[in-house]
Write a structure and sequence with these properties.
320 residues; mainly alpha; 16 helices; globular
Length: 320
């Protein structure tokens, strides 16, 4: 069990649920034109299974990455980060393949239950769309490093992370509650997507040398370390600016800018990356950036709710 927990890479999980938290609390704090109260729009069932489905996708992605890079030989002595399960021989490729299949099935079941709680027997078109979206997310999580045409080896990993852990996560879960797309929510959705890509880019910067030797043509390998740094600055700074624009357009009061506290570790992270001359020393920054993104999502959701105590009381008394 210990080895499977390590293979699941728990340090990546907080980052993966950031969009779910923001999209859910936005639904809670912004009732629609047809749904007038927070208790009518928010559902603990949707929230719980959205978290469960997203965590399943993240664990599936981690298992698939371990398997794909392991059988391809990408994870070797040149790799800088922690040893992975197949690389160390703790878990066999056959066992990991079975784990990928089981995790895929469980994640799909969670997604189906989530869709049922969101749409019930009505909105059949929405149900089919989100089912196909869930299947696409599962396939994408696996195909990142698995197979001869793994898109992670062609530099498309950033796009996958941005779409599924930014846009789909934030806007998708909000739609499950509200049944509509709020254009304003696109700003924090893009922000979380960019920060998530930043974590992947940091990982690829760390592994640039070993990835190049193994033929894993990530964006970092294609553009080189110097440009990858500039790309990283763009991702993080743009994400920070978009959240500020979101707050301004939402007419936040002065006390609702509490989320700016998360900019302190993000700024320190940028300084560390700027000063870094040895990509191998970037490994600790992955956890810091992931946790900083999670912190930003938590603080932002707190700022979204003006009368947070009243709403929480209403949820416990009348929530579903």
């Amino acid at each position: 069990m210990k080895h499977w927990i390590e293979a699941a890479r728990l340090r990546t999980l907080p980052l993966s649920v950031s969009g779910i938290i923001v999209g859910s609390i936005y639904a809670l704090s912004n009732p629609t034109e047809t749904i007038n109260t927070p208790t009518e729009v928010f559902s603990w069932k949707i929230f719980g299974f959205a978290l469960l489905t997203t965590l399943g996708l993240q664990v599936l992605s981690n298992f698939a990455n371990d398997y794909g890079d392991g059988v391809k030989g990408t994870d070797n002595v040149d790799r800088v980060g922690p040893q992975r399960a197949i690389q160390s021989g703790i878990i066999t490729p056959q066992a990991m393949k079975k784990a990928i299949i089981i995790t895929s099935i469980l994640t799909l079941l969670s997604a189906i239950i989530l869709i049922y709680f969101a749409f019930g027997k009505d909105n059949f078109g929405y149900s089919i769309f989100f089912l196909l979206l869930g299947i696409a997310a599962i396939i994408s999580a696996i195909r990142y490093t698995v197979g001869n045409s793994a898109y992670g080896y062609k530099g498309f990993g950033d796009l996958f992370v941005f779409i599924f852990f930014g846009l789909v996560s934030t806007l998708g879960v909000n739609f499950l509650y509200s049944k509509e797309v709020d254009p304003l929510l696109i700003l924090p959705a893009v922000s979380i997507g960019l920060l998530s890509v930043g974590v992947l880019n940091l990982n690829n910067m760390r592994d640039e040398e070993s990835d190049r030797k193994s033929g894993k043509n990530t964006i970092v390998v294609q553009m080189g370390g110097a440009k990858a740094k500039k790309y990283h600055y763009f991702l993080i700074i743009t994400a920070m600016l978009l959240v500020i624009i979101f707050a301004a357009l939402s007419d936040y009061r002065f006390d609702q800018y509490l989320f700016l506290l998360a900019y302190i570790p993000l700024t320190k992270h940028l300084i560390t990356v700027y000063k870094n001359q040895n990509p191998k020393l970037l490994d600790p920054e992955l956890k810091k950036l992931a946790l900083s993104t999670f912190l930003l999502s938590i603080l932002l959701t707190v700022c979204m709710i003006s009368l947070i105590s009243d709403i929480i009381v209403n949820l416990f008394l009348g929530g579903r």
